[in-house]
Amino acid sequence: GSWAVVDISLDNLQPNPLVRRRRRASGCWIQEMPNGYSKVTWVEHVEVDDRGVHDLYKHMVSHAFGAKRWVAILDRQCERLASVMATKISSGEFEVGVITNQEGRMSMLKLAERMVISFCAGVSASTAHTWTTLSGTGAEDVRVMTRKSVDDPGRPPGIVLSAAISFGIPVPPKRVFDFLRDENLRNEWDILSNGGVVQEMAHIANGRDTGKCVSLLRVNSANSSQSNMLILQESCTDPTASFVIYAPVDIVAMNIVLNGGDPDYVALLPSGFAILPDGNAIGGGEGGSLLTVAFQILVDSVPTAKLSLGSVATVNNLIACTVERIKASMSCETA
Q1: Is the pTM of this model over 0.90?
Q2: Distance (Å, rounded) from C-alpha 261 to C-alpha 327?
Q3: Which chain regions cross the lipid bilayer (predicted)?
Q4: Residue 23 pLDDT class (50, 70, 90 cuts)
Q5: pLDDT score of 124
Q6: What is the DSSP string of 15-76?
Q7: What is the end-to-end Cα distance of the chain in Å, rounded?
């Protein structure tokens, strides 16, 4: 009736001076409960060198590596699996005529999961892919890095430019999350929607909270000569963090997915937002938010091409304008 999963970083056995964190003996203890539930006890014991962490995120170190976050992610993943395996679907969960079968629903959820993983990988730095500061000297620097995409059926080929910025905003995380995930408010920050009307074509619940869902959005361009654009979006939230992640998708490819086709060959280049509490809650209040905005944009379809300064300037301007629009909208809400 009990199970344990415990692990430890190999760096504890073979010390590496370049590693800034080591996971000492940590893990979870799972107990079977009479009502069919599981009781999970989680213990994290992590050694972290936080000297290289930006002041904006210093207070988040224990939060990021803590046991509460592991439990929250476990709970979120269990909800996701329950949604994937669900056989009884509410008639109001998706629009009639969009998702016509269970296979299509599963394919769309699988595609959304890959999109989230791709987003996280795209904004994660490493020794091979490091961030370069573009502008400014304060907390709100835009940072960029490039990656070459070659022979990856799930990503368009060429040079991908990733740009990200993090900043504080005096609005509770839930309000920021609800604002960014609402397709009716998308025009307030999404420059690429170009003034078009955004309509939700399909909605798949992905958890108990109404904010946990996968949506297929259609941008009806104000210019009738332009073809309509589809956007796949996943929004997810838990007490430790919230995410709104999206990617433009090809209409033909999505029709295949919605009919149960293989989603692994749909090329995705996801962008999105990570929303964290800023740790400034006072007297039981909600406090503000730390918002990270991250874009991934294909700047050249030839992987061997050189990155142009014009491409960097365009992406820098795009992310700066998006940030200003979000701040302006949030300021109107709090006024």
Answers
A1: no
A2: 40
A3: none
A4: confident
A5: 79
A6: --TT--EEE-SEEEEEEE-TTS-EEEEEE--EEE-GGGS-GGGGGGHHHHHSHHHHHHHHHH
A7: 54
